[in-house]
From TrEMBL:
Keywords: Aminoacyl-tRNA synthetase, ATP-binding, Ligase, Nucleotide-binding, Protein biosynthesis, RNA-binding, tRNA-binding. GO terms for molecular function: alanine-tRNA ligase activity; aminoacyl-tRNA deacylase activity; ATP binding; tRNA binding. This is alanine--tRNA ligase. Belongs to the class-II aminoacyl-tRNA synthetase family.
Length: 600
């Protein structure tokens, strides 16, 4: 069944709505108030509080299609299936239905609505451990649905268990988790590569199988004594990659032939006058161009600017690697601005901001590319000399190049790979990190931490700061007027950062007045509560919203006494007295009518 990505989105939405599910709007790629991760990494990221027990405004049956970034996959891009950005199609049951309904509905969606051949589908199931039983229930359900026994495989917790901390042994007390059941497609026209093992199976890395759906059954909680107890309310968390499902529907193991990637490949062919499949290096290069350009465009459209820290560093890294690879195909100028229209054409009806911001993004990319091409030219001879002179101390060589020319170590590693110089990448990264720390490169060090990913930080101090941002937001309205708009925030255990727009630049006396108001409200010991109400009603009573985000028809509104009311998912303190005293210790202008406050 050949369908477009737009048709797949409609089929998915229609199916789950018929089953009583409500659409949860996607959150931005840069998650609000989550300092532990650079980007939104999954569809369930915004639902962590709900999976842990908080009620969701839309009820117990939910679905969405969430764009997500896996920064840690950047070095894997170039094969037939890895990308840095992807779209996760998910459905959830929050203490409602469980294994029987979930597996049956997934099977029907895949085999009936999408008409995937049943004999091409394979299943993986949790094999059990000494403390957690084998998931025989899922196996029985799959067999009753018609899955042949020789198409069902059992794996241990490394493959078929989900928790935020990984396998059961790594879960801290209070952490929920459970077994999962994954769905694979077999590309039978591919021959198994024996270097990956004597026998092929669904989790083999040879490429014959592709996982395209995963149902997690969150049914356990880790106790203080190390045991696992059953949750009173069991949840289902399903995720299926839109790109992978489209590849399955094409029966093509090459994911870059689907219609959210192929148009970018076609543009690359036109720019380079080279065919995608002309040779192995060209194929890999064009995949990198397609992936990095798509990710860079969507990240930039979400408001990220190239820089040397955090999300901006990752954006810069994508653009520079793409420019560097473009040179291998003879593309010497304007690769980013030339490829941008292809991404706009693909996604403008799904994510309208990419078309609205096309000119701004184009100007940003043009400037970044022109600066980096100068760096590339300056670095070219230095790289050649460094490779000739190096005595295998590649990490130090890479660092020296970066210090002298701004040539990033990822690109230096690519140079070594092209010259068939093999290195121990793990050792290189460890040594390079030590050198960086020695020279106190704090921004890059912070990115290394965040590339590992993570979920919302709910430590006590960050929860206090979260509530404090609501007080700060409201105090700025009181001091500066009603045209104040929140543009973003970032919270760590050390401080809160609050970005906002205002037609009037705050003076020192304004910030002092806002601080006084906040601390007065803290002293008043105001109760913090939430209500789930219709969005129209929330807007009618004047609840503040983060305007960049989309909100469903039913929303959660947090009330800080009678002083503040704001759209928010939580978590918060129960009373403002828990916050303690707050001070604004830094203020800066970050753009036209845009300002940033740091407080602690």
């Amino acid at each position: 069944m050949l369908i477009t990505h737009l048709q797949l989105r409609k089929l998915f939405s229609k199916f789950w709505e018929k089953k009583g599910h409500k659409l949860v709007p996607p959150i931005p790629l840069v998650p609000k108030e989550d300092p532990t991760t650079l980007f939104t990494g999954s569809g369930m990221q915004q639902l962590v509080p709900n999976l842990l027990g908080e009620p969701h405004p839309l009820g117990k049956r939910l679905y969405n299609i969430q764009p997500a970034v896996r920064a840690q996959d950047v070095d894997e891009v170039g094969d037939n299936r890895h990308t840095t950005i992807f779209e996760m199609m998910g459905n959830w049951s929050l203490g409602d239905y469980f294994k029987q309904e979930q597996l049956e509905w997934c099977w029907n969606f895949f085999t009936k609505d999408l008409e995937i051949q049943k004999n091409k589908i394979y299943i993986s199931i949790f094999a059990g451990t000494k403390t957690v039983p084998r998931d025989s229930e899922s196996a029985t359900i799959w067999k009753k649905l018609g899955v042949a026994e020789n198409h069902i495989f059992f794996y241990g917790p490394e493959k078929n268990w989900w928790s935020r901390a990984g396998i059961p042994e790594n879960m801290p007390a209070g952490e929920p988790g459970g077994p999962n059941s994954e769905v694979f497609y077999e590309f039978s026209n591919m021959t198994h590569n024996p270097k990956f093992g004597s026998k092929c199976h669904p989790n083999c890395d040879c490429g014959r199988f592709m996982e395209f759906g995963n149902s997690v059954f969150m049914q356990y909680k880790k106790e203080k004594d190390g045991s696992l107890s059953e949750l009173p309310k069991k949840n289902v968390d399903f995720g299926g990659g839109l790109e992978r499902i489209l590849a399955v529907l094409m029966s093509s193991p090459d994911m870059f032939k689907i219609d959210v990637l192929l148009p970018i490949i076609k543009f690359s062919e036109d720019l380079s006058h080279t065919k995608y499949k002309s040779d192995e290096n060209t194929t890999r290069t064009m995949r990198i161009l397609a992936d990095h350009m798509r990710s860079a465009a969507l990240i930039a459209a979400d408001g990220v600017l190239p820089s040397n820290k955090d999300q901006g560093y990752f954006l810069r890294r994508l653009l520079r690697k793409m420019i560097r690879y473009g040179k291998n195909l003879g593309i010497e100028n304007n690769i980013s601005t030339s490829l941008l229209p292809s991404i706009v054409g693909i996604f403008k009806s799904v994510y309208p901001q990419i078309e609205k911001k096309q000119t701004a993004v184009q100007n940003i990319f043009k400037l970044e590319e022109s600066k980096f091409r100068v760096t590339l030219e300056n670095a070219r001879l230095s790289v050649e000399k460094a490779i000739k002179k190096s005595s295998n101390n590649w990490a130090q060589t890479a660092f020296d190049l970066f210090q002298s020319t701004g040539y990033h170590p990822e690109l230096f590693l690519e140079d070594l790979k092209e010259k068939n110089i093999e290195i121990d990448k793990r050792k290189f990264n460890q040594t390079y990190k030590l050198i960086f720390e020695k020279h106190q490169n704090i921004s890059k060090k912070g990115v290394d931490k965040k590339f590992k990913g993570g979920l919302a930080d709910t430590k006590g101090q960050t929860i206090k700061y979260h509530t404090a941002t609501h007080l700060l937001h409201q105090s700025l309205f009181a001091v500066l007027g009603n045209d104040v708009r929140q543009e973003g925030s970032n919270i760590t255990t050390e401080r809160l950062r609050f970005d906002f727009s205002s037609s009037r630049k705050p003076e020192k006396k304004d910030l002092e007045k806002a601080t006084k108001i906040i601390n007065q409200k803290i002293k008043e010991k105001l109760p913090v509560e939430f209500k789930i109400i219709p969005k129209k009603e929330a807007l009618k009573i004047g609840a503040r919203s983060f305007f960049k985000e989309k909100y469903p028809d039913m929303v959660k509104v947090y009330f800080v006494g009678k002083y503040s009311k704001e759209f928010c998912g939580g978590p918060h303190v129960k009373n403002t007295k828990e916050i303690g005293k707050l001070e604004i210790f830094k203020f800066e202008k970050i753009g036209s009518n845009l300002y940033r406050i740091y407080a602690r």
